[in-house]
Design goal:
There is one protein chain. This protein has 5 domains: 60 residues, Orthogonal Bundle (DNA polymerase, domain 1); 96 residues, OB fold (Dihydrolipoamide Acetyltransferase, E2P); 105 residues, no CATH class; 196 residues, Rossmann fold (3-Layer(aba) Sandwich); 156 residues, P-loop containing nucleotide triphosphate hydrolases (Rossmann fold, 3-Layer(aba) Sandwich). The protein is 36% helix and 17% strand. It is built from 23 helices and 21 strands. The strands form 4 sheets. The chain has a 7-stranded parallel β-sheet. Helix 20 runs antiparallel to helix 21. The longest helix is centred in the N-terminal third of the chain and has 27 residues. The chain is globular and about 105 Å long. The chain binds adenosine-5'-diphosphate and magnesium ion (MG). Magnesium ion (MG) binds next to helix 11.
Amino acid sequence: MKNNNNYEYLLNNLTKIKGVGKKTTEILKKKGITNIFDLLWRLPKSYIDRSNKSKINELQIGQVSTITIKPIKYSFPRIKNLPNKVTCQDETGYIDCIFFNSYEGYIKKILPLNVNITISGKIGYYKNKYQITNPTYVSEDTSIIEKVHNKYRLTDGINQKYYNKIIEQILNNLPSIPEWHSNKIQKKFNNQKWRESIIKLHDAKNIGNFQSDYYRRLAFDEILASMLISSEIRKKIKKIKKENKIFKVDEAKTIFNNLDFELTNDQKRALNEINLDLKSKNKMFRLLQGDVGSGKTIVSLISALNVVKSDYQVALMAPTEILAKQHYNFAKKIFPKNIEIDILSGKTEMKKKKLIYEKIKNGKIKMIFGTHTLFQKKMNFNNLGYIIIDEQHKFGVKQRKNLSDKGGSNCDVLLMSATPIPRTLIMSIYGDMDISIIREKPKNRKSVITYSKPDSKINDVIKFVRKEIDDGNQIFWVCPLIEDSKKIDHESAIKKFKYLKNIFPDSVDILHGNIDKNKKEEILNNFLNKKFSILVSTTIIEVGIDFPNANVIVIENANKFGLSQLHQLRGRVGRGHKQASCILLFKSNLSENARKRINILKSSNDGFVISEEDMKLRGFGDLLGFKQSGLKNYKLADPIHNADLFKLGENEILRIEREEPNIKRYKPLLKLYDQADIINDII
Ligand code: ADP
Ligand code: MG
């Protein structure tokens, strides 16, 4: 056995494995496996024990057995559908080996007459004789057979025997990588080394040992690697020096005169944290996290005004034009009138656009609103000092890293997210950022009351809606699909629109992703201005938009949505002073799990609680916005079952940040586990 300590062997592509060629490489690539390291995490699913040898007269029908025999006679009938047969014997009896679809030449090669051969397979019985069909293992070297054989989940084009050979080869060549964990951490896992742990992981007899030291050690490797990468990015950003913003007077206070509410304590605290960062000499890279409706916008706008007043420009980027417009209008309302702000959208005419570019360049425009198009080449800021990005949960670590580089070192960055993250995961997902959390909801806010109804009770829902319309309220009606689908039995927006239009002829309109941009905006504006009462739509209304007069949201096929997504949708209503309602419609045959999920939503209005519960029920992979977070790449670690390891990781990171300015010894860990290759920019 080769024994080296070079981890780079694991980063080789699969063709470095003996016997693996282009074809296998292509097959495995489709499964997301590109290098040897990736292969380590496909675990055996079961095993066959071929270690028990017997004689022919001891064979038991239906069992997998290993026997040593001598082939004594071939029978190749050459008739379609009749199998080839090799009669074999040992000193106690006879057995037939039956081959379907195997060439004579091959059979003669593996079972030469009058030679002792060891074979293994499931024992059958036919016409008074034992038989083995397509014996899986045929070999002269009995040691290869007489053992436990792992069974892996296979993919077309690769068989068990071949796959096992590949894995065996890799395990034999597994490097003994120098230990990266501190002594204290090693002790927690009873000093299980990486290499030995991987070998145990591939011993099929250990399947399901999730609580074993070796398994937990490997899970912890993953957790620490992802946290350490974030921590390094964060450290690097922290080192960037900038000109500090000087707040002459905290003139932003003037804004408060234009507000008809007071900030909550959480809003004040978040604003304070942001202001401190802005005034410091270090570049800010901060996440402002708060549930839907917690009032993040106002916090960002006040901090923006502070920056403007310190003679820097600000850019606010929203995920949609409608939302950009809404933020812009809000700023127009509360900013001092002598501060020029503007909005750039796809719709802006060329002439106006050019003027905006000009004014951005000469510094006349102090704050600009828009979507991602804000950062085009044509855009040259005079003195950009602050970028605010709303609803950032669409970015992964790598994209965030790029963002942090935007605008040069003098530019502070604030990301805002309405996706509550279970506590266990905050450091794993956002370890590269400082975080401010708004947990408290504005005081005047009434909780949305949530009902659930089977489809069959639609008439009750219509009655309820009619009453709300009579009271001057507006309704969102959300469907999972745009059009009817033959394949999926979900309500479509178009069908529902027709249905509702019949009942409320002048009060319904429809919005979905296939509607032209300008038309979309017109519809939303009409809804905002109360030109109609019911807006039937797909989930495109999910993000951020504020409709103070919308009071009811009806959600069809509610069980098809994630809990966090339902919570986001529900957050579209209940922004005004009236009591708001959310009606979840579902098909009557709900599963136990679906029922539980709906009950969680009914009993809580707190996005953090909901995300924790959602994670417990569905696993973290499905939580809204986690798809690109990198977290999904965990092979073994599980935030629910390994919550303690995540906590341990947080503490260990703090220790490393304190005590180990040089993280060179973690290099193999990071190189192996960082599939996003971020590490190349860091070490
Ligand atoms: P989100 O955090 O989801 O982005 P918004 O910033 O859109 O929430 O705020 C939702 C609504 O609450 C807005 O109409 C906003 O003006 C209002 N709001 C924000 N802060 C407060 C507060 N402290 N008291 C009352 N209303 C508030
Ligand atoms: Mg918002």
